[in-house]
Protein 1
Amino acid sequence: MRIVSQKVKLLACCLVAHAMICAPLVAQTSPARAWPHPIQARIKDGTNKDLFVMTLGDVDTPLADGVFDPAADELRLKDGTVIKGYYKDRLRVRYFAPIDKSHFPLPPAGWCSWYYYYQEINETEVRRNAEWIARNLKDYGAQYVQIDDGWQGAGRGQSDNRDWTKVNAARFPSGLDGLAAYIKELGLKPGIWLAPHGQSNEQVVKSHPRVFLLKEDGSSASSTWEGRYLVDPSTPEAREYLKDLFRTLKRWGYEYFKIDGQPIVVREYRTKRAFMKDQTEDPVALYRKTLASIRSAIGPDSYLLGCWGIPLEGIGIMNGSRTGTDIVAAWNGFKYALRATMQYYFLHNIAWYTDPDVFVVRPPLPLEQARAWATLQGLTGQALLTSDRLMDLPEERVELLRRIYPAVDIRPLDLFPAERDKRIFDLKIKHLDRQYDVVGIFNYDEDRPSLVYLNWQELGLPANRPVHIFDFWNREYLGAWEHGMTIELNPASCRVLTLLPDEDRIQLISTSRHITQGWVDLLDQRYDPATHSYSGRSRVIKDDPYELRFVFPRGKNFAIKKAIARTEAGELPVKIDNHQGWATIEFAAPRTTEVRWEVAFEPAEFYRYPVREPSNPWIERVSLDGVDLRWNPPYQGVAGYVVALNGRPLGFTPTNVFTLRNLDPDAAYTAEIRAVWYDGTLSEKGARVEFSLRQLLPQELPLSALTPLRLTSGWQQPERDRTFLGTRLSLDGQSHATGIGMPTDSEIEFGIAGPYTTFSALVGIDDSYRSNDPRSVEFTVSGDGKELWQGVVKKGDRPLPVKVNISGVRRLSLRVRRVGGDGGRVPADWADAKLVR
């Protein structure tokens, strides 16, 4: 153990003392059922293919197709059908077992060094970030400080940093044990990264003759990213070697172990079986024995994270898996995390905790994009590690962290992989006597704004009853409306709305502490209708302004006449804000503690304005099956507008635009718009417009103007109008404004039902691909599952024209595949891809 400076020791002691006084209060506040227990489940999309559903608490929703019993791996549908082996057989998760939550009831939350420092990490920077977490984020639930690549060997370069027996003393003068001890003194938990199955130090290999895969001449039988040598899983000596390695790391004080390159290890064991000293056992079973050796060394109280890709072979031994590729500190990084969530979230908190990789919020990432990334993490409850230089974050970025830590006990309702990047994340929460939805709505396009329609019935909410709407990030109440709502989003952004069905009384709709708005902080809440008063208890964080938000029945108004907040030490100052239709109280405590509060309301005047009808409605086509309805607002004030289509009410919009989707191209439609006041009173007259979608469709339609039905790819995904590398499509020196850029071994599918008869494009390998690799790319066009066209292009070939008859086709698929062996992804372009009438 190394000696740390007196100054740093003093800081650590102060922080420990603070931690003892202000221990973080982050445990779940609802009584937890013993896991594993049956859970509600969906096994397929409903009418809205854009809907992605999660649950928190003992939720009951009409969206469920049935009930899944994880202990029996059995799903019972509402019609009585029983699907046995749902995960093992239907989803092909061979080693499925319910996650063991006895040691880790919640996913890990904290910080990782990699995505700011990469291999340029050092002890001083780890300490600085750990101290910042202890002061600013520990009470919110951050626990882990994970040191990534760069601590070992020479600290950089693959051949130099696959030696786990040597710590880089120049960068870590106190040693890894001294640093772990310091992190623990701060009340945090140290974590460490390594690729343990690999090794590049020849002396280590020579001193362990039965540990590594070797050829007869003594050379390596497996040289990969994992290391120049690979552990032979078939020998007891190899498994003892792994135990010794992890016993050392455990003795140093580490409690979180991120083991990298696991899919490479599994692949090598399958293909290099001939070099194993014992070839009688299944390679995957042997791989699991190496994991069992690691587990026996670190014990059940240490967190084991498999990385990267999706090492399903580790289920039942690993606590979690990093399911995505390496992120980047840009919008593409968010989209990598999104894709991993879509593909593998069905495993989260059921088989293990999924980790779509870290998230970042630092500039120059725009604030709206940082907020979207934080929302993705907060609403899904996956492993929650950020990777910024925390001391540099502006206050507005720190605020994002405060509102999503800790990760909570969220799990999927949707027990199936999503084939598209869904835009509506519906988290259904049941907590105390509150059942409400927290809905994240996303626009993934960096260039174009978008409109998203929330249909109450599609969300499992009452359609004909007012639903209160609160905007969490913007801290504003949007009213109570029937049927649904259209939301307008900026490019690359999100909104988070809390939806609470009206119960014709004063209701608590939101709290400010956490994106789940009550689960983390609200211990008790009670309403007395006789006195129009609320009382409750909340966990609050030191010096963090805590707000309770109340809403009133539509058309009625109340005002807070008195509010009290008290701790054991005495009363706290309370700020009251009364608004028409809603009210808030806010208080802050000088330490992290429990606060009792009381709020008394009295009737108040409701101001009403006689709204006037809008005028001059018009239609803008936005897709094959959708239009945006627009109009001129009246000069006088309105709360918003309600829209009906062919006499059927659709819902509310606060702005003068409403999106209409899933339209029949051959049907005739009449849309009506009426202005509405906050009490639900409509304008006497409405504005009407008649239209037919077929009349609006152009002669030629770029395929990139459509939203995909399905995306199938590995760690990257197709991009409209640019390659997956982020540049404009370019073939043979010619730039193309529209089209689809795809990495090889991926597929994209569109719904194209309508009047179009021809698909045309120009295909080839994008000019951005600089490799001289002679392998080819195969392009395939399919319609409704039937192959319609296929062509092969090599690097340097002239672009190949495509023209395909698609008459009667409803689902058009484009697929690209690399021909000839393994290798990196190749950017393949469908330039000027379009539908022609």
Protein 2
Amino acid sequence: MTRINLKRLCAKKETQSLIKEIVGEIDPTVSIRDREGRCLVGNDRDDDRETEAKKYPIEVAGETLGWAIGDRGGATLAKLVSHLAQKEFEKKTLANEALDKYREITLLYDLSQKLTASLEFNEVAKLVMDEVQRMMQASGGCLMLLDRTGATLETVAGFGEDPQGSTRVQLGRGIVGGAIASSGGEIVNDVSRDPRHDDTDPERGSLLCVPLKTKDRAIGGIAIACEQTETYKAADLKRLTMLASQAATAIENAILHEQKLEESRREALLFRLSSQIRYSLNLDWILETAVGEIRTLLDVDRCWFMWYRGDFESGDWEIVKESRDRQLASVLGSYRAEQIQGWLSSCDREAVIRADDLDRCADVPGRQLFQDCGLSEIVALPIRTRSGEMGVVVCGNTSKRRPWSDREVELLAAVANQLAIAVDQAQMYAEAANSAKAAQAQAEKLQAILSELQETQAQLIQSEKMSSLGQLIAGVAHEINNPVNFIYGNLSHASQYSQDLIGLIECYQKHYPDPHPEVQAEIEAVDLDFLVEDLPKIIASMQVGAERIRQIVLTLRNFSRLDEAQMKAVNLHEGIESTLLILHNRLKGKNGRPGIEIVKNFDSLPNVECYASQMNQVFMNILSNAIDALEYHPQELRKISITTQSIRGSRSPLAGDRPGSFDEVRSVAIRIADNGPGMSPEVKNRLFDPFFTTKPVGKGTGLGLSIGYQIVVEKHGGTIQCVSQPGEGTEFWIEIPVKPGIVQPKSIQWHAETSREKKSIKPRAKLQQFMA
């Protein structure tokens, strides 16, 4: 309410000068006092004469602001100040009205901006109620919309306690339902005394309700309540009505948007479903996809597909595929025809069965079955295939009640037509597939025999090659070993004899310091001093050379290990060293190119039970390939890194469920990496295929890595993997158990898969654990 402060009015310059001028002309003894008796204009005295003077009220809009005190000019001064106060009051009132109008426009604009910023219905409804809670005094409020039937109001958003005590209210019933049905806002400042108040309604002091109207049609309403009585006034009704008018338009737009979005989504789902089932030839997949997509399409609790098994006179119905809420029990299975009376004849006519409320539709075919499945409403569409089979798509809800729209039935009919076509295609394909099944089985059998033959041939070739190489190495080692042992065994005696002879010569020189001239001449001729000094060195060098030859022969025998046909505990480092010794000549620099540097990072490995010669063969093949890759690689520093590591306990990336200590070494890992040109993904994917090689004709058989894979995976239960990128070198990673059966790596199953599937496994995670 607009109020005038008399003191401020009298203190204004223009008012103050005007009042003083008038007081001076009328009666200098006149004064103006406020309601508390404080003097604002004139003499501030409290003598008997002023007490006896007349008091004239200064009034504005029925409110007394103060008094003009004086006998002669008091009345005139009171009228003048009252007039000035009235003008001030009118000016302030206009200003407040303009400010209220501005705030109202600003509020409408801000609210409109907020509401139109979103087309999501739930967001719009929540935003409206947030604004209501902010603007209005209320302990609770709700926004309600009419449902599909147009007879029930359902709460969609709110705050605090629901003013009506229920989320669903019948239109025209109670205070809220009646106010919205009348399409006019209503204030009830004492709910308990309103005749429409029901004892079951929550106790409320005041209630304010306005409808949500668009184009003179109510789509819902907003109701707020307060615990105190006499809370709401006309201004509150106006404010809430203004907000409701903005909200109604925004909500209607959001609903239309969601309806169009839902329609678009259903059209998209229908197109997707049609595409999926039309271009698939798997009948089970078609039916399973259809019931899942239809349930999503119509947003129902259940959807199933059932076949009729038998002739028209007798037979069973079988539900073969279903999609349902998790809380619902499965209904898959067979049902006798008498359990679904009238169902077959209705389906034979290909009539759509549609029921919005099964409790009120006693003549619906199969009603008892549907009710036993907990359905309250259903729609079913039969389909007939070219072969004469009868199938039915059934959709239904268990708890929620809503009428089936014609649009939904049309969508379902379109899906059923597409499904019938897809079923026909799948059945024709199944017939064609059955006709070709025998030939395909024979072709697969021949292919398996051919693959086995190629694999056996590759193994025989490689085994024969390694056997011949082993026999050659063993023979050469044996033949060299005999004369070397003879030389090595006599070198110790020759060394001792030479020392004895030198000692004898020194003894002669001691006792016969003046030798015969002929002896002196011979001493000078043979340079006796040099001979005595150099002879032990020569014999020592011969010993070193003989020892070196013995070590080479021992290494060759260790590499071939023809005497070890069974698994034995061996030191893998010896096998690697013997392999490097055999390849020593290829590691040297040639034709101006630098040699290949070998970097060894050996961990302390336990002896491993394995086929030693076969593991040496694996090392030989991988190292030979690395040398081939580096041979013509234009790089100054060419190197091959060999790293070994013990893998303890279940820290192994391939460890199984076998219990064991973390300190127990369960497997060993060997990593061989080069800094060569690397491999393309296409080459790496075929790396372990038999007879695949990138080397020129005559330079490689393509069997080395294939045989190596079989040795590591099948013979030893380990893994072999390759990591390579073009320009980043190549790395082979081998892991084998310390004892047979200590781990069960996944790669054991690779042999049963195709080569492309085997190479698709990514080893980087295991390599990172290995490097850690």
